[in-house]
Amino acid sequence: MILNSKSQYTSFIKSEAKRLGFLSCGISKAGFLEEEAPRLESWLQKNYNGSMQYMEHHFDKRLDPTLLVDDAKSVVSLLLNYYPQEFQNGNSFKVSKYAYSTDYHFVIKEKLNELLFSIREHIGAVSGRAFVDSAPVLDKAWAAKSGLGWIGKNSNLLTQKVGSFYFIAELILDLELDYDHAVTDHCGTCTACIDACPTQAIVAPYTVDGSKCISYFTIELKGQIPAEMKGKFDDWVFGCDVCQDVCPWNRFSKPHQEPLFSANHELLTFSKSDWLELTEETFKVVFKDSPLKRAKYSGIVRNISFLED
Questions:
Q1: Is 195 marked as binding a ligand?
Q2: Would you say 47 is a known binding-site residue?
Q3: 235 noted as active-site residue
Q4: Of 2, 26, 87, 266, whose CA is between 20 and 30 Å from 164?
Q5: Which residues bind [4Fe-4S] cluster 1 (predicted)?
Q6: φ/ψ bin of 193: left (φ > 0), alpha (ψ from -120 to 50), beta (otherwise)
Q7: Beta carbons within 8 Å of 181's beta carbon, 6+ residues apart
Q8: How far is CA 136 from CA 43, 56, 144, 169, 270, in A?
Q9: What residues pair up with 169 in beta bridges, in sequence order?
Q10: Catalytic residue among 64, 70, 71, 133
Q11: Overall domain count for the chain
Q12: pLDDT tens per residue across span 10-61
């Protein structure tokens, strides 16, 4: 099949994304994110990034994909559902649902590389790069610009028919395509996420102080968890899903169909005593390819100790 127009290229990319299991695909014109620049600057000035100093690096690249890919023309945003089919034992320390299975970086990067290979095979010498939240790309901003949802009051991307339990990834290409348009905000007067946040990390609608978020404390923070957070973690030991769990749009979440996201059965059945008795050797075996490796065994032990003391 010979593709020779922007519309054919666009249709091909979206159909390939669907074939590879992505929930949806939206495309934006690559360029400077003018609206995001003052927001990001203000967020950093208020130290909402806490000890996540990497957020301060590559400020210009975060706002302009043409600095990441020479002659970039398009940002292809993709969503991949991770909403689980089964959940953790109710009497256990809690792990964020995205971490139930294999580390998503491996799964998504492989799909993105396959999509890029397919684009080159059918369209020609297209230059581009794949990104899965490990590079300075404002994922949610590009996904919203591409019409895949809107940024909610909890600062997550929300989509009417599927909620927010999905990963966001991008291909930045030097290929002109047909571009999608942003959708409207459907949060309305709802404040469920703001009211439910255990640490009041959502300091204003659409603004999260990252340095107060349970996910920050249990994953990103390398030092001791501040004593004033005692009793506020509601048994979360890795990440937190509260602002997503209470969001009315997530009543539309449907279980994923990705075999590589099959939940780690041992994690699901762990009781509190299993966590308390966890050795470093067992951690290495049970969580070999898991996102929990990011916190390391020492981090998980620290988090459990903080909950139990």
A1: no
A2: no
A3: no
A4: 266
A5: 187, 190, 193, 247
A6: alpha
A7: 147
A8: 15, 10, 17, 12, 35
A9: 78
A10: 133
A11: 1
A12: 999 999 999 999 999 999 999 999 999 999 999 999 999 999 988 888 899 9
pTM of the model: 0.95
Q: Is the pLDDT of residue 171 over 70?
A: yes
Instruction: Establish whether 25 is an annotated binding residue.
Output: no
The annotation status of 187 as a binding-site residue, yes or no, is yes
C-alpha–C-alpha distance, residues 113 and 115, integer Å: 5
Check residue 168 and give its pLDDT: 98
Report the b/e string of 63-82 with b at 16+ CB within 10 A: bbbeebbeebbbbbbbbbbb
- DSSP letter for 270, please: -
DSSP-assigned states of every residue in 192-255? HHHHH-TT--EEETTEE-GGG-HHIIIII--SPPPGGGTT-STTEEE---HHHHT-GGGGG---
- Alpha-carbon distance 58 to 63, whole Å? 9
Give the tokens for residue 176: 């002109």
The tens digit of pLDDT for each residue in 252-289 reads 999 999 999 999 999 999 999 999 999 999 999 999 99
Provide the residue range defining the domain that includes 127.
Answer: 1-309
Instruction: Report the alpha-carbon distance of residue 205 to residue 155 in Å, rounded.
Output: 8
